[in-house]
């Protein structure tokens, strides 16, 4: 595997499994003796097999030697660092690197799914990074000093995706990385703006992202879907300040290369910037009157994810949504009905049909052909279950865990979704390399027989999923 592909392997492939541990009540002098004997710079502190802290040689210098305390009087618990900086053993290496740089630590304790000690990973364990690496890009985002530098670094995200596209990196990991880097771009812009002009913004507000950005499912074709929520108690001056902040932030995103939303779903527009009370009212209007326009707007909004600010607003609005659909199923039924209008373009004998005529003749609009039907169908199931957090994949996992769908269905839907997103991302990479603006169209003539066969199977999988949700939500009861 190419060196850059290492960053998409799990931490468990790199961490040191042989970890020296001690108990919180152990004497410090005894533990220091073990560190000296084994020539190690840290010991993980475990309580009932669960890691709770860590002591390092720096702790010994700063907390014992420098303060002149008699080490023979101390227990490990008195100087250990806690809470612990940890990472899951199945998390990706680039996430470990990002967490180290963010927390300004040199090591992370690796834990398994039950929270038990699995290993330890240090920055020195990891191969030195080259310029084509997610970690280096994150560091460069964090170190950007102004909007011009952010723009340059943002442009490198596209270059990184092009570089990694032939490395064997999975589509799911690639999409996850793009979303992660885009989040860091947003956070850096906000940090720069707050330092320069908006140091005194009220605490009771949140900048949220919506739609595919809210789900963390962006590819190379991305525009803005965002909003602002703020407390009902804020005064006119505070609201005016938030309005100015919203306009500057959205304009800054446009300036670095993230295009505006064609439908105007942006925090700089008044209808997407409201108090929590008014957002409750708006959500209620959408849910009570599920017209096609309301279903589309609400469907985008409920993918809400807090990027910056008070996260309680997001949870409040989701709880309102969950409570409503338990009382009244009509909105969900209309939402699923709208997804069924996007039938997979399959003709006689299952042949994939491209568009006829126009500039996209012979091409397949892959989002409308299947991606939208899956993401929205899974979203409807997640709303019904009260499990909206995360991506389409994470929602499927939550639905299986709660036994709301079976594992076989979830695996089939996930496999279909991954293939369609792969086709979308690959088409966008080809467009960029050829100097074209990336879009959602796939030239069918460029696909070989095997790829056409896989596409045919995927679109049939979309049809099966649509049949499932049609029955699940009893759409036969709907009147047109």
Question: Keyphrases for this structure?
Answer:
alpha/beta, Four Helix Bundle (Hemerythrin (Met), subunit A), 480 residues, 3-stranded mixed sheet, 50% helix, CBS-domain, Beta Polymerase, domain 2
How would you characterize the overall build of this protein?
- With 480 residues, the protein is of the alpha/beta class.
- The chain folds into 3 domains: 3-125, CBS-domain, CATH 3.10.580.10; 134-327, Beta Polymerase, domain 2 (2-Layer Sandwich); 330-477, Four Helix Bundle (Hemerythrin (Met), subunit A) (Up-down Bundle), CATH 1.20.120.
- It has helices at 28-38, 57-65, 93-103, 134-143, 147-164, 171-196, 211-215, 236-256, 276-288, 292-301, 312-327, 330-340, 366-385, 392-401, 407-433, 449-472, and strands at residues 21-22, 42-47, 50-56, 86-88, 107-111, 117-122, 205-209, 226-230, 273-275, 305-309, 363-365, 441-443.
- It has a 4-stranded mixed sheet. A 3-stranded mixed sheet has the order 1-2-3. A 3-stranded mixed sheet has the order 4-5-6, with helices on one face.
- Mean pLDDT is 89; it is low at 127-131.
Main sheet properties: 4 strands, mixed
Instruction: Give the H and E element order.
Output: EHEEHEHEEHHHEHEHEHHEHHEHHHEH
Give the total of domains: 3
What is the fold named in CATH at topology level of the largest domain?
Beta Polymerase, domain 2
Spatial sequence of strands, sheet with the most strands: 9-8-7-10
Counting DSSP E segments of at least 2 residues, the number of strands comes to 12
CATH superfamily label of the largest domain: Beta Polymerase, domain 2
| CATH C-level label of the largest domain | Alpha Beta
Low-confidence stretches: 127-131
- Tell me the Rg in angstroms: 25 Å
């Amino acid at each position: 595997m190419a060196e850059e592909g290492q960053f998409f392997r799990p931490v468990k492939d790199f961490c040191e499994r042989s970890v020296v541990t001690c108990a919180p009540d152990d004497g410090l002098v005894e533990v220091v003796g073990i560190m000296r004997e084994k020539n190690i710079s840290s010991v993980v502190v475990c309580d009932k097999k669960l890691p709770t802290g860590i002591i390092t040689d720096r702790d010994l210098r700063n907390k014992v030697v420098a303060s002149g305390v008699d080490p023979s009087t101390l227990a490990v618990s008195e100087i250990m660092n806690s809470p612990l900086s940890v990472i899951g053993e199945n998390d990706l290496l680039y996430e470990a690197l990002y967490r180290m740089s963010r927390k300004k630590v040199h090591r992370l304790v690796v834990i398994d799914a039950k929270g038990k000690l699995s290993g330890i990973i240090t920055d020195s364990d990891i191969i030195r990074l080259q310029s084509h690496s997610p970690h280096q890009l994150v560091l460069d985002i964090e170190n950007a000093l102004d909007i011009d530098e952010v723009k340059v670094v943002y442009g490198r995200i596209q270059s990184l995706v092009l570089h990694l596209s032939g490395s064997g990196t999975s589509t799911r990991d690639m999409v996850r990385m793009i979303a992660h880097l885009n989040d860091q771009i947003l956070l850096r812009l906000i940090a720069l703006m707050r330092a320069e002009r908006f140091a005194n913004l009220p605490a009771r507000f949140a900048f949220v992202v919506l739609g595919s950005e809210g789900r963390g499912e962006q590819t190379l074709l991305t525009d803005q879907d965002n909003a602002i929520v703020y407390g009902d108690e804020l005064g006119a001056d505070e609201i005016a300040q938030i309005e100015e902040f919203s306009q500057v932030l959205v304009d800054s995103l446009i300036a670095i290369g993230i295009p505006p939303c064609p439908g105007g779903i942006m925090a700089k527009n008044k209808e997407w910037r409201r108090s929590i009370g008014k957002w409750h009212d708006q959500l209620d209007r959408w849910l009570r009157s599920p017209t096609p326009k309301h279903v589309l707007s609400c469907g985008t909004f409920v993918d809400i994810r807090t990027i910056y600010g008070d996260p309680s607003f997001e949870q409040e609005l989701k709880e309102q949504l969950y409570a409503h659909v338990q009382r009244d199923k009509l909105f969900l039924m209309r939402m699923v009905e709208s997804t069924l209008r996007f039938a997979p373009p399959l003709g006689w004998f299952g042949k994939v049909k491209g568009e006829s005529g126009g500039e996209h003749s012979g091409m397949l609009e892959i989002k409308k052909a299947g991606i939208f039907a899956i993401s929205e169908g899974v979203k409807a199931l997640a709303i019904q279950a009260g499990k909206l957090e995360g991506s389409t994949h994470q929602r499927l996992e939550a639905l299986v865990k709660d036994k709301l769908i079976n594992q076989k269905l979830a695996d089939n839907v996930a496999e279909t979704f991954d293939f369609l997103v792969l086709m979308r991302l690959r088409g966008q990479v080809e467009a960029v390399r050829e100097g074209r603006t990336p879009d959602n169209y796939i030239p069918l003539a460029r696909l070989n027989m095997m790829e056409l066969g896989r596409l045919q199977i995927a679109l049939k999988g979309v049809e099966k999923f649509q049949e499932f949700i049609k029955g699940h939500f009893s759409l036969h009861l709907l009147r047109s």
